[in-house]
Amino acid sequence: MAVVGTEIRATSESLLTARQPRKAANMGQIIRWLLLFAGGILMVAPIAYMISTSLKWPHEIYNLALIPDEPHLENYTYVLEDGRFYGWFVNSIIIATITTVSNILFDSLVGYTLCKFRFAGRYIIFIAILSTLMIPTEMLVIPWYLMSQALGWLDSYWGIMFPGLMTAFGTFLMKQFFETVPDDFIEAARIDGLNELEIWWTVAMPLVRPALAALAIFVFLGNWTAFIWPLIVTNSVEMYTLPVGLSSFGDEADVQWELIMTGAAISTIPTLVVFLVFQRFIIRGVVMAGLKG
Amino acid sequence: MYRNLSVHQKQVVWAWAFLAIPIIFYAVIRFYPTANAMLISLQDWNLLGDRVWAGWENYDKLWNDPIFWKVFRNTFAYLLIGTPISLLVSFAIAYHLDKLRFMHGFLRMLYFLPFMTSAVAMAWVWRWFYQPVPIGLFNNFLSTLGIAQIEFLRSTTLALPAILAPAVWAGLGFQVIIFMAGLRAIPRSYYEAARIDGVSGWTVLWEITIPLLKPTIVFIVVFSSIGFLRIFDQVFNMTTGDPGGPLNSTKPLVLMIYQSAFTDFDMGYAAAQTVVLFLVLLIVSLVQLRILQDR
């Protein structure tokens, strides 16, 4: 009885006091929202200033105002007519796209094989591939450079792309997701007379589409922004990717800031647009890759 | 021949056929270069002449190189400043953002956008911010307030944090998203039980939220530490005229590797540095995993 009594008292007390904290919480929520909003504005401010400056005339760039007095696109036409930026943009698109397609195909094929086939040596191969995650790219750039020099791959698309055509991260991610594909589906397809390549492509792949999308986004973004290897392997201005090209402007003493901001904007806007369009998808992909990968 | 195989044998054939190209790729593009880097680190080679066996000479030279120790300290400064700050800030943002419903997606987008940018492009933007009056945004702002100018990138003390700032900024959104996913994974019933027991908000945070977030925290600490130890793009692009900043005050290990290999063409010396980088990354990750998982 005593126990019931205290419980009732506790409940009635909580009912009496419930109202006040709730009002306070609402005030707290408003402050919380305002602070987070202010923080968010600060986060996007560098991007906003970059775009704003790319729309300004040279005499305006020292002005702190975010909105240009007379916004114009002259800087963009100037930068793109110069030809170099246009070429770098095309190079970056080609390299990031081919690398993404290669990773989608090979990482998922290897992940699928390691997940769904039973054969001697499977575990060793899985561990071997996984162990390459521990090797930093920086350790490999010198041997890659020597290899490219010996085989004539320097200063070519292939030279820029070859190190990233497959990744252990992608393979591991895909293997994790193929675990969710029921073996029965694959067995049923086998009975239907499909060969193993057809089963992988027509049965298993469609079932892991969200993971493939996440992988595609990561690989594309990674290659679009990749810097150290393209910097090392390219020598001619025509072969530069966007980051290497932007970097080649060098010292700030002779820089025209509105033009450099235009270049920076050209290399940033495509990924921002992709993000804004596929936002939910990308956030989910980040979570999947982060937690499973 | 293939027809006579059993179902299992056929599958084994398919498996090796699927793995053939990837096995060659990993052997030639990952394992062989790793071994080669270790081999070159024991040789003396300037790219043009012969590869001469040098034993531990390169490591010896590294041990006695004052610039290397400066670089080593810088590399750890990036880690020791960058990781705690980004961990605390991203947790604070995620913790509060998780409690909001109004325009939740919009706020999340604001924090995540910098993650989608390229480090080189953003290095230019931040470099512009740091310029002296009348160009730089920060110094212009300071001068309107009547505060003295700050020479961000030309200072021996402030240049390193000034370069670190865009790296922390760009990575924050990713960590916020991971933290929010971790927070969502904590069962609601724990919080309800705590509320019924009348536990205070701070106690809930320290006794429920943080202990249950441990796997997420471990992941973020290890992941961001590796990133800060390998910092290069921001440093290279914010100190182009004087790579590594005044008196090497901002130079990290990866930049020293790049310069040894591709400006001095001292391949053996550069390779020895890459082996050191590999060991540093391995040891730091293992130590962090050990410490964080035990508690």
Tags for this model:
heterodimer, A: 293 residues, mainly alpha, MetI-like fold, 14 helices, 75% helix, B: 295 residues, two-stranded antiparallel sheet, 2 strands, 71% helix
Structure description:
The complex is a heterodimer of chains A (293) and B (295). Chain A is an all-alpha fold and 293 residues long. Chain A has one domain (82-292): MetI-like fold (Orthogonal Bundle), CATH 1.10.3720.10. Chain A has helices spanning 2-54, 74-81, 84-116, 122-131, 137-151, 157-161, 168-178, 183-191, 196-207, 209-225, 228-233, 242-247, 257-277, 279-292. In chain A, helix 1 (2-54) packs across helix 13 (257-277), helix 2 (74-81) crosses helix 13 and helix 8 (183-191) packs antiparallel against helix 9. The longest helix of chain A is centred in the first third of the chain and has 53 residues, at 2-54. Chain A is globular, with a radius of gyration of 27 Å. Chain B has a single domain, classed as Orthogonal Bundle (MetI-like fold), CATH 1.10.3720.10. Chain B has a two-stranded antiparallel ribbon with strand order 1-2. In chain B, strand 1 and strand 2 (52-53) form a beta hairpin. The model of chain B has no long low-confidence stretch (mean pLDDT 90).
Find the structural class of chain B using helix and strand composition.
mainly alpha
Helix percentage of chain A? over 70%
Morphology call of chain A = globular
Query: What is the CA-CA span between the terminal residues of chain A?
Result: 54 Å
CATH superfamily of chain A: MetI-like
Low-confidence stretches of chain B: none
Describe the strand arrangement of the main beta sheet of chain B, using strand numbers: 1-2
What is the second-level CATH architecture of chain B?
Answer: Orthogonal Bundle
